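Quick log. Single chain, no ligands specified.
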Amino acid sequence: MQVRKMTCTIGAEIFGVSLGDASRDAGLAEAIKEQLLEHKVLFFHDQNITRAEHAAFARYFGDLEDHPVAGSDPDHPGLVQIYRNDKRENYENNYHTDGQWRETPAMGAVLRCIECPPVGGDTIWVNMVEAYKNLPQEIKDKIDGLKVKCSIEHSFGAVMPEEKRRELGRNNPMVEHPVVRTHPETGEKILYVSSFSTHFANYHTPENVRFGLDKTPGASMLLNYLISQASIPEYQVRFRWKPNSVAMWDNRCTQHYAVQDYWPAPRKMERAAIVGDRPF
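-> predicted structure:
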């Protein structure tokens, strides 16, 4: 295995590895996991693997999860088909953590490119450990202990007919997570807000709110400031896809943004998302 860092803060290309082999070799999968914890997102080239191998490799790290809106391959549950070929859908072109609207968001994901546009369609990943580390100390003090509410209804549900949107919300009720979570394996502190975050749950206290202005718009301005940290280039890596390229990321400490600059060219991806644990 050869490893080449892509930036100073996040991302590495892995050479000399077949993910098909890794789907049958626990030792090789464990070696890949070690690199994942260090670099947070890994990139593999020329991975001509089957859907079964794709799912089996991801399943080494945990059970796979389906998505309530995007469909999975019928023969491989948990292998979500993200096919953009008949209309433009603006779901992924914002900074987000997959499944933050779940009680237990995804631990990570393995995404393979099936078909990509000749130009455009890159994906950006962000190191949210670095984002937290570089916050001003007074902001760190202010957000210590804060909880944030997260929802799928205002994103995926917004374009649905009203009753379908409400049904999506009922089936996936709003959840609450810490604004700063701790990585369960590395112990790193992570800024854990994204475009799925709607508002703070416990901001309105005597320490934070003297007048109504402190809460509205004060709390929303603070949340928007925190969400904006993902857009800082120094925390990012950008990847250009080719067919059979694969990206694997640690969803607990990263965000990503799928750049939608390729319409009307098609872009077809298949993603295996791995069930995670409850953030703390």
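The mean pLDDT is 95.
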